Please model this.
Amino acid sequence: MRESNQANVSEMMRFFAVDQKIIADSLSILLDAGADDGELFFQYRATNTISYEDGIINRAHSSIDCGVGIRAVAGDNTGFAFSEELSDASIKRAAKTAATIAKSGDRVKKPIEIRAQSHKNYYDTKIKWHDVAVESKLPIISQTADSAKQQDSAI
Model:
């Protein structure tokens, strides 16, 4: 794995408070429960929805989705499980659940290789959007609405 990818993976593992051991243990549980292959997918998504109507903000909503999804493959079967709790026990329980869903036999395997993957960042920014406070986003919405009204008064 290239050095920059390894740095991204290490940063993500710190963010989710997981290490190679919990990932390896979870994959071992998944394989011991009958899966032929599997993967862990860690997710973090923060969203802000702001509704602007008639010159005022009339609704605002923020949410955070965080957790781990686990996919287990056994033969032609696939099992999925998800946990919003990122404790070792919850991740392992989700791994066993996914494998049980996909189970195709009593074979026992251990993971051969753990390959952490990172995705290329096509839109690198100086400030991450989730670090921008809602209060700082409101003027952008007002300016956009004002500009749109100047283009078409029906807006």
